[in-house]
C-alpha cells in the first residue's frame, strides 16, 4: 500500500536524523574562544601614555608657536564704518547702479620687511557664506561648463537663475554676491615715488577647482563672448562673466577670483586669498620696511548687514599662515596630559587599589 | 519583526482582503468568519451536504505572503513599526525643498537598507513556512470515496470524509473515531505534539460504529454529527451522533486530534469533523505573549526622551533662527533673499525647526534597532553553538528560541524551577531496602573508595545491565535462599502494573506508569525475580531461573486516598496470597499485631531512608485461604457491579481484605538529581539569584530534594514551614517567620559584637502550624559557626528558607496577604512551594513580577510548567522526557538544568554586558556626530546647514561606525567564561542594572556632547585663521567638513578601541576596516571621476585630497582626538584604579601573574565543615520525621485496564513509543508561528563535550605547587557553599577524565594568546580548564591551582614558553 510505504520512509528519515549528532562545531569562533588581545587600563599602560602624549605635544606646540610667531601678518580694515576712515564716503554713498567707481586710499606702514612670498587676502566679517540657502545656491554643472546647464540653470539657483527671461551665468546667490572690490598696493619709496606692487592674480585657487570643478562651456571655442551668448550676467555684477579678465586662461568660469569666491567659507568671518606678491630674486625682501598705500576701488557694500572688510598681508611657513592657537593648544594639552600623568601617578601610589595583586574578594 | 496588527478597515480595503485570507489560514480564532459558526453539522460520506456549510478545507496556510502580495503586505507591515514610519515621515519632510536640509538619500538609503534586511528575513521565514505547508498539505492519506479507498493529499480531505489511518501515521484532521482494528474499538495515540504528554492515550469509538468494521459498511455509513464549533480546548469535545434514528453522545474520548500519531493500532477509520485551520492543533497555535526585555523598555523610554531632546534642540535653533533672520538675515537679503514662500522671520523659524528635526534625527538612528536585533541574533547563535550546553546523551544542543531576550539573561534575580524532570531526572533508582529488619544498600557512601558495582550477569542472565547496586550482602542473601528476601523480591515482581515487552529472548523492556514502579520491578528482576509477561489473568515470572506462572486474581488498584496497591495471586501450588505495597503511614496501620517488633525496626530504617531523601515504600503480604478469597471475591464483584457509589464500595472492599498483613520490609528509591544540580544551585545562589522551587510534589519530597540539591543546607538558621489551612494561620505563620528572622539576625549581630568566638545556636526548624503534623515537626538543632566575614545583611537574607504548601499558598496569594508573603519570602534565601497547581506557579511568578522590580526566570520541563514559563520574563524549557510542551512555550531550551548556570552566568552576563556597552557607545557616537550641527547652527545663521558632506551623513551610521560597534556588541568579553562561573559575583552588576541605566545614559550623551563641542570648536578655532602652505585659506566649508568628519571618525574609532575589551581578529578587521573604508570612500566620493559623471551630486570634488595633505589638518585632528580621549582615559583609569569592579580585578589578575595566591575567600568562606558526608551530616541535623516520599506517581485505573485486557498491547506500544520519539518538524513549525532561526549545524564529531568545569572556586591554599600534582582528594577544601562534598565526588570523575584534553587545548591557546598580547605572557592565559600538562590527576578545584602552580614553576625556572602553536590548529579538531 502506498500509504504504508510513505510511512516507512518517514520513519526511516527520522532514524537517520536522530543518528546525526547535533553537537555544535568545536570552532574557536562558535565557542567564542577566538584568540584575542585583551587590553586593560593599568597604571603600567595609562600613565606612560599620558607622559608620552605630554612629551609629544609640548615640543610640537612650542614648534608650532614659534613658527607661527615668525610669520608676519598685517590686517587693515577698510570697511569705512568710521567717519575718520578714508573709505567712509565710499561706504556711505554706495549704490549698485552707480557707474562711477568710488576709490579710497589707505596708507599703512610695514615695520618689518616681508621676506619670501607675500599673500594678500581680503577678509569679510558677518558674511554668512555658510548659510544653507546660500551654500546650495549654485549649479556645479553649469560651472563645470555644461552647455545644457548654462542655458537651463538648476532650480537651486533660484531666485538667481533667470533674469529678464535669460539664464544667468553663473547662476545662484553665491556668484551673484561675488566680492568685487579691487585692491592695489603701492610702495611709497622713501624718495617719494609711489611704486605699484605687482600682484599675481593666478595660483590663488585650488588646482582641482580650477582644472576639474570649473570649466568654461564650449572648451574648444576660445571666444567666450559667443559661448555665453544668450545668457545674462548676475544681477549684481558690473561685467559679464566673460569679461572678468583679459587673460583667456583666467576668464569666464575659470577666473580664479571667481573660483575663490565660489569656495564658500565655513564661518561668517573669513578671509579669501586675493593676490600673491611673488618673491623677487636675490636677497631683496618682497616687501621692504616702509610706507605703503592701499588703494581700494570700493564696489562691495557690507554696511547694510554690518559686515566688515579687511585686507590682510601675510607670509606663510610650512604650516601655513599665522595660527597661534594651534601652538598654544598643543602646549596646553601636552602640559595638561603631563600634569594629569603626575597626578594619576601620585593617586595611584597613594590610594591605588593594592588588592590588584590578586585577591579577588567578593 | 512585525506582528500584524489590526488594520483600520476603511483605509486599506485591498490589504484587508489579503489579510483576511491570511488570517483565515493562520489562525481561525482571530478571523471573523463569514458567519459565526454556532454548531457544526457533518454528515458522513456526503460531500454535497457538507459543502453547504463552507467549512474550512484541510489545507493549512501558515505562510503570510505569496509572490504577488509579498511586497505590499510586507512593506505595509513594516511601516507599522513606529520607527519605520518616523523615518518615512522624515523622508517626506525632506522632499519639501524649503525644509530639506539633507538630500533625500541620506534617509532613504538607511531606511531602504533596514527595510530590505527585514524583508529578506521575512521572506526567508515565509519561504520555509511555504515549504512546510506544502509538505504537510501534500501528505497522503487514504480517503473513502464512493466506497473505495483513494489516496488523497491532506489538503483535499474534506469535512465529512471518512479517512483510514494506519499505524504510526499522523492524524490528518480532527477525526471522530469510527472503528478500529483493535478490539473494543480502541486505538492508541501519542499526543506529544499536541500537549506534550508522552504517554499513550486510549481512544475508543462509539460502540455502534466500532461494529461497522470493514470499509463497505463504512462507505454506507451516513450518520450525522452535530457538535460544538471549532475551539482550542484540547481535552473537551461534545457532540452528538445521529444515526439510524438514534442519538449517541460523543466526547473527547472518541476523538483523534490532528497532530497525534496513531500508535500500536493497525488501522482505524475516522470521520473528519474539523479540518485545517479549524483543528484544535491549529486553534492552539500562536504565541500568546510578546516578551520584551527591560533594556528594551528602557531603550524605548530613552528614545522618547531623545525625541523630546530633539524637539528641544529644534525649538532652540528655531528661536535662534527667528532672532537671526530678524536681526541679520533681513539685512543680508541683498545677498541672500528669503525663499519665495517665506515672508517673515517667524515662518522661516518654523521651517527651520523642521529642517533641524531632519538633520538632528541621527541622534536616534534607524540603525539602532537593526543593530540591536543583529547583536541579539548573534548572541542567540552563540547559545545555540555552545558545546558546553550540548547534552550528548540526548543529542540536544541548547536553543535560543527567541532572539529578543538575551541580555535579560544577565539580569535574572529570581529563578522559579520545577522539580521533577528539571532538578531531578525523574529517574528512580532502587537504592536501599530493609528486609525483615535487615537493611541493605549501605555501600553507597559516596566517600568510601568507590564501591564495586554488583555484576548480576553470572547469577542472572536476564539482569538489566543498567541496574546499579553496590551491596553484595543482599545478593548473597538471595543466593543463600533467604525466605524473606525471596518473598520480598517476589512481591516486587508481582505487585505492580508494569507492562513488559520481550523483543527477543531475555531482552526485556519494562514500560511502567511511574518510574518508581519500574525501578522496583527492575530491582526484582536483577535479584532473580524476573517479571516476564502478563496476560489479563496471569503473571509469568522467572524466579531464580525457574519460570513460574501466577494466576492473577485481582488487582486492588492504587488511588490517592488508599496510597497503596495490592494484587491477589494464586501461585502454581494453588496458594492464594495478597501482596501489598504502599505508603508506610497507611500500610503499617494494617499489619498483623505480631509484626510489632519488625515494624519498629523497619520504621527506623524508613526514617533513615527518608532522611537521606529517598522515596520509601513499605511492603507486606497476606496469605489468604480459599474461603477467604471466595468470600471477598464475592463482595468485590458485588461492589464492582454497584451502580451508585462504586468507588466507595470498591474501596471498602479493598480495605476489607488489606488487613492483618505481614510486613516484609521497605524499599528506598532515590529520585536521582540531574547532573550538576547542587553545584549549579550553589553557583547561582552565590550570584545572588534567589531560587524558588515550585513543585506539585509533596512537601516531604520537595524538602528532601531541596536538601539534596543544596537549596536548603544545614547551615541555614531556620527553615520556616508554612502549612496553615486558614487565612489566619497562614498570616500568623508568615508574621512569626518575619519576627523570628529579625530577632535571629539581631541576635547574631549581637553575638558578633561580643566577639568572634561565636558559634551560634540556631534553633533549627520551626514548629509547623495547626495540625498538619506530618511536615511541621522539623526538629533538630544546629550548632554552627557564623562565617567570619559575613555581615548582617547577608545574614538576614542568606540564612533562611521558606517552605509553603499549596493550600497556604492559595491564601498567601490573596490580595491582602500578597505583600506580607512577598516580604517574608524574599527575605529568604530559598523558597520551596509544594503541592502547587500549574496556575499557582504562574501566580507566584506574577506576584514577584508585580512586587519586585526583578527579572524572573522560570524553568521547567512539563506541560504543568507552561503557564509559569509563559508568565516569567524568561522561560526556559528542559527538553527532557516530558515532551515538548514546555519547550514550545519557552524562550530558551536545553536538556540539563546545570546548563542554566552557563546560560545565565556566561551567555546572559556577556549579552547584558555587550548590549550595555553597545548602547552606551551607540548613543555616544550619535550624539558626538549630531550635536556638531547644533553648534554649527550658531555660526551659520541657524540655517540648518550641515557640517558634513551629505554622503558622510548617509554613511556614518551604516558604514563608517556600524561594524566596530557591532563587533563589540557581539564578541566582547570582559572576563572569560571560566571566570564568570568561578566568580558568580560578577553577575551582580546585571541584577542591579548598573551597566546601562538612565545615569549611564546621561553620562554617555554628556560624553557625546562634549566630544561634539570639541569636534566643532577645535577645528573652528584652528582653521578659521589657518592657511595652506600655498597661502590658500583652510577656512572654507568643505575643508572644515572634511576635517571635522575625519576627526569624528577617528575619535569614535579610538573610543570604540577603548571600549572594546576583547580584540579578536574580527574586531581588528572591523575597526581598521572601517577607518580604511572611511578614507577610501571619502577619496572616491571626492574624486574627479565621479564629479565628471554627476557634477551636481559631488560638490566636494578634490576636498579630501586637498585637505588631508595639510599638516595643519592632521595636527587639528590629533589635537581634537587628544582632547576628547584624554579625560575619558583618565576617568576610566581612576575608576579602575580606585574603585575596581570585580570584573576589573578578575581581568587584572589574568594579566598579572600571581606567584602567591591566597585561597579564594567568599562571603561565606569558612564554613566549619570538613569533608563529612552530606547525608550523615544531614541525618544528624534533621530528625527523621521526613519520610514516606510516597512513591506512587501513577494513574489510577491502570489495574482495571490490565484486568480487562484492554491495554495489553501497550507493552509493544511502549517500545514503539521509545523507538520513534522523533518529533516531526512541520508541527513545530506550525506551532511556532515565527521560527526564530535555524538549528545548529550538526557536526559529525560525536565526542563528548567537556563538562563545564565551572564549579566553584574551591581552591586549596597553595603552599607549594606540588600539592597540586598529588591530586589527592583529601586536600582540605575551603568551600563557600554547602555544596562541597557532593560536588566533590560528583565532579572528580568528570574532571579527571576531561581535563587532559581541555588542558591540551588551553595550553597552546593560552600561550599563543599571551604572545599575541605581548604582555606578561602566561598571565594572560584564558584557560578553559587549566593548562596543566595532560596526565595529571586533578582534583576539583585543583585545576585552577594547577594553572597557577605551573605558571609559578615556569617563571621560577625561567623555562621557555611552550611553542606558540596557532590556536586554531589545536582547537579545530
Automatic annotation (TrEMBL), chain A:
<dbReference type="GO" id="GO:0030658">
    <property type="term" value="C:transport vesicle membrane"/>
</dbReference>
<feature type="transmembrane region" description="Helical">
    <location>
        <begin position="40"/>
        <end position="66"/>
    </location>
</feature>
<keyword id="KW-1003">Cell membrane</keyword>
<dbReference type="Pfam" id="PF03381">
    <property type="entry name" value="CDC50"/>
</dbReference>
<dbReference type="InterPro" id="IPR005045">
    <property type="entry name" value="CDC50/LEM3_fam"/>
</dbReference>
<dbReference type="GO" id="GO:0005794">
    <property type="term" value="C:Golgi apparatus"/>
</dbReference>
<keyword id="KW-0812">Transmembrane</keyword>
<dbReference type="GO" id="GO:0005783">
    <property type="term" value="C:endoplasmic reticulum"/>
</dbReference>
<keyword id="KW-0968">Cytoplasmic vesicle</keyword>
<dbReference type="GO" id="GO:0045332">
    <property type="term" value="P:phospholipid translocation"/>
</dbReference>
<protein>
    <recommendedName>
        <fullName>Cell cycle control protein</fullName>
    </recommendedName>
</protein>
<keyword id="KW-0333">Golgi apparatus</keyword>
<keyword id="KW-0325">Glycoprotein</keyword>
<keyword id="KW-0445">Lipid transport</keyword>
<keyword id="KW-1015">Disulfide bond</keyword>
<keyword id="KW-1133">Transmembrane helix</keyword>
<dbReference type="GO" id="GO:0016324">
    <property type="term" value="C:apical plasma membrane"/>
</dbReference>
<comment type="similarity">
    <text>Belongs to the CDC50/LEM3 family.</text>
</comment>
<feature type="transmembrane region" description="Helical">
    <location>
        <begin position="325"/>
        <end position="347"/>
    </location>
</feature>
<keyword id="KW-0813">Transport</keyword>
<keyword id="KW-0472">Membrane</keyword>
From TrEMBL, chain B:
<feature type="transmembrane region" description="Helical">
    <location>
        <begin position="1001"/>
        <end position="1024"/>
    </location>
</feature>
<feature type="binding site">
    <location>
        <position position="696"/>
    </location>
    <ligand>
        <name>ATP</name>
    </ligand>
</feature>
<feature type="transmembrane region" description="Helical">
    <location>
        <begin position="1113"/>
        <end position="1134"/>
    </location>
</feature>
<dbReference type="GO" id="GO:0005802">
    <property type="term" value="C:trans-Golgi network"/>
</dbReference>
<feature type="transmembrane region" description="Helical">
    <location>
        <begin position="918"/>
        <end position="939"/>
    </location>
</feature>
<dbReference type="InterPro" id="IPR023299">
    <property type="entry name" value="ATPase_P-typ_cyto_dom_N"/>
</dbReference>
<feature type="binding site">
    <location>
        <position position="695"/>
    </location>
    <ligand>
        <name>ATP</name>
    </ligand>
</feature>
<keyword id="KW-0175">Coiled coil</keyword>
<feature type="binding site">
    <location>
        <position position="418"/>
    </location>
    <ligand>
        <name>ATP</name>
    </ligand>
</feature>
<feature type="binding site">
    <location>
        <position position="841"/>
    </location>
    <ligand>
        <name>ATP</name>
    </ligand>
</feature>
<feature type="active site" description="4-aspartylphosphate intermediate">
    <location>
        <position position="418"/>
    </location>
</feature>
<dbReference type="InterPro" id="IPR023214">
    <property type="entry name" value="HAD_sf"/>
</dbReference>
<dbReference type="InterPro" id="IPR032631">
    <property type="entry name" value="P-type_ATPase_N"/>
</dbReference>
<feature type="transmembrane region" description="Helical">
    <location>
        <begin position="951"/>
        <end position="971"/>
    </location>
</feature>
<dbReference type="InterPro" id="IPR032630">
    <property type="entry name" value="P_typ_ATPase_c"/>
</dbReference>
<dbReference type="GO" id="GO:0140345">
    <property type="term" value="F:phosphatidylcholine flippase activity"/>
</dbReference>
<feature type="coiled-coil region">
    <location>
        <begin position="727"/>
        <end position="754"/>
    </location>
</feature>
<dbReference type="GO" id="GO:0000287">
    <property type="term" value="F:magnesium ion binding"/>
</dbReference>
<dbReference type="Pfam" id="PF16212">
    <property type="entry name" value="PhoLip_ATPase_C"/>
</dbReference>
<dbReference type="Pfam" id="PF16209">
    <property type="entry name" value="PhoLip_ATPase_N"/>
</dbReference>
<feature type="compositionally biased region" description="Low complexity">
    <location>
        <begin position="1242"/>
        <end position="1272"/>
    </location>
</feature>
<keyword id="KW-0547">Nucleotide-binding</keyword>
